[in-house]
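The methods section describes the discrete structure representation at length, but only in general terms. What matters is that the chain and its backbone geometry are given together, residue for residue. Nothing conveys this as quickly as seeing an actual entry. For illustration, here is how one protein appears when written out as sequence plus structure tokens:
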Amino acid sequence: MVAFAEVLPNDGNFIMAAQHVALDLVKRIKIPINSTSPQGLRDASKQDPWAQSGKYGLGWVYLSVILLLFATALRCYHLWGDKIRTAQYKEEVINSSTVISPEPEYELTSARTFRSTQRFFPSNGKLPEKPKEESAVSTIAPLNNIVSLFRWIFYRPVPALRIGRLCIVFPSLGATAVVVISLIFCILYTFIPQPFYYESISYGSPPLAIRAGMISVAMMPWIIGLSMKANFITFLTGIGHERLNVLHRWGGYLCLLMALIHTVPFYIQAHRDRGGFETYKLYFTQQYYIFTTGIAALVPLAFLCIHSLPFLRTWMYEGFVALHVPVSMVFVGMLFWHCNNYLGSWNYLYATIAIWFLSYLCRLFYLNWTNPLRMSWLIGEESAVTLLPENAIKVTIPTQKKWKPGQYVYLRMPGISFFENHPFTIASLCSDDFPSEYGEEYRDMILVFRPFGGFTRKVYNTAVEKGPYKTYRAFIDGPYGGMRREMASFDQVVFFAGGSGITAIASQLLDLIKRMRDGKAVTKKVRVIWALKRPETMEWFKEELRICREYAPTDSIHCSFFITASKRYDKEPKPSRSRPHSDFLHDKVNDVFQGVASKRNSALIIADANGDPDRERELRDENEDSITALPPVFLAPPRFAVGEKPRKGSKRNSQPAPPPAESKVFDFGFPQTPTKLQKNLMRFAFLPTTRSDGWRTEYGRPDIPYALKELSKDFGRRTCIFVCGPPSMRTDVANTVAKLQHDVWSDPGKDEIFLHAENYAI
């Protein structure tokens, strides 16, 4: 108190002077310094002065920008190389098509072939140089070796940590490296500068707390940017938001750590220096407890981090989705109150809100119901649900949206569950070669998934109860994700799929075959390795597999199917209703949307008929035909247990079977019903069925490391390996591809072995 009185003006009483000073000072009080000031106060004005503490927030910004520029430069390098290789190949195809037959000057005029031979192979001079097949940038050996070295390190997955029943799954090694670099930077930048505390808290807030607080606030724009589906980081780096979400989550944990480091020094010094703390409280005019604003900001941050822990998020996913964004808004509001624009901290919060707003604004262009020029405006698209073998679900959505192979969308179906919104990979190809029956502007977006629990189980139950001719309104958010590289620029492509992971590969495979036939793909060989439990699963993509076999260039596609289980589903699971009372509400909501769509169709019909009753009647008949759930070709035939025959009068025989599709039966290369001996030996690869065209089926699990090592002997200059399957499959593929990076260093004929691992859950 004496130290404080020494710096007060002489012409005012103590209380009035304290109030006057409190109006001009901020949390780290800038007290006038003169010859009578205490030595500790004079040291505080020179050692890490409060006025210069804003640099710690800028330090985090500089680190983030450096990491962002590195990822962007790496993407540009790969993108440029892919585009150049594809363009060179197209040019080569065009040139070769123009010289299939010799020019007139090379035509043979007589049987004396030596003259023509001299034309093609001149005796004097050099032979024409072979055209370059690779761009100069993408064939720099040292650069490719450096990239392969990083892949040799970062392709390896981090083993999961098991503590009893608790399983801690770490992010990829690349994401872990980014998190570790950020953690080391924050710790060093906070604890290396001195001092940690001033001699008295009356001289100002602890410098350690201010450093940590500024770094924590500076993280906010980046944390929010990493969380949004449509964000500028994805635009620059090409990394999908589903992968950036890992950095968003760990960035939140790091922000909480720095917030705690910001909080603790205040309590420590307030406890040690009680007299100085009484003086420190006089600097503030708030009527609440002095640390109220800090606690108000810390509590929502702690809640956001705790309820986003993987096991809690999985246990209460719907609650997590419902609470995360509102609590985040409360947290940002509390930060405005707590920071009070000290050291320009509000600039980071303004940037946070700007990123938030722009991301949501851009997201409007990803929704299928926000375009007033489309029929789906505000009411979504019409969709149909079909049951496939092995109790899988197929949702077909004719839409005008465009998508790329391997992308996914978030699906909401109010007629089934109004509030749930879940991601599903698009299994169909958006191409003019696959038009929709809804019209030339529409393409069928097909989603295939298994019913496990929650939303997927509700879709299955509703489809069983309502039948195949019930349609539902579908609200789509997307597409998102996809490969960052151009798959058609690789010489060879290897696909690994596990079970329903084939959904992420089907569209990629069709697109690649189409490009190969059109001369737009460098790819010469494609190999597909699909591990599935039962042969019936292949019925999901029977048409796609038929296209691969019949339309792919000769000897370019090799498919290996591995049947890993012998037990079949003898009976379909009975539908379970978790909320039977909600059916009425869901049906009403769906009927409202369907009614609006019907009125829009009716208005278009009247306008198109232009007063002609016959034309109007014809259009209405066509419209009635078009709103059935699916054409008969899409309906799966009734399924019976192995050896079971349809019984007369049974429920499954009560409905007429749809007419068979006008397509020939596709042979997958194995018997439809395995023999008893084969069933007993399904766990072993003793009974492979190999075909001469490279398609084969084996009973057993694939030996992924051995298969990749054998395939690597024939790899070209650049090879892409795409995997979508359970964690064990992704781990085996990632470890093997990491080891194969050694071939890039030792073999001058190989420039790149690229790995793309897709999340099995999407």
